[in-house]
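User: quick one, fold this
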Amino acid sequence: MADENIIYVGKKPTMNYVLAVVTQFNNDANRITIKARGKAISKAVDIAEITKRKFLQTVTYEKITLNTETLEGERGTSNVSSIEITLAK
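Assistant:
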């Protein structure tokens, strides 16, 4: 899978990411992965749902992966939940 077909969810508004997903599909991408960690997980789910319901009804969920990542921080290690949602044409 090419790196440009991965969208990392952060602090931008939800519709910015939806637009990015729709643009990728319109540029002949067959599958796109939306990745998020921690508090951004709910935004990633929103992005996938808005894309699927409002813009590209033919897109399906190919794979959803839940994970826990261990991060090193100033206060030692902490576990952060993560999600990968793969949408396919």
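User: anything notable?
Assistant: Residues 3-88 form a domain with the Translation Initiation Factor IF3 fold (CATH 3.30.110.20).
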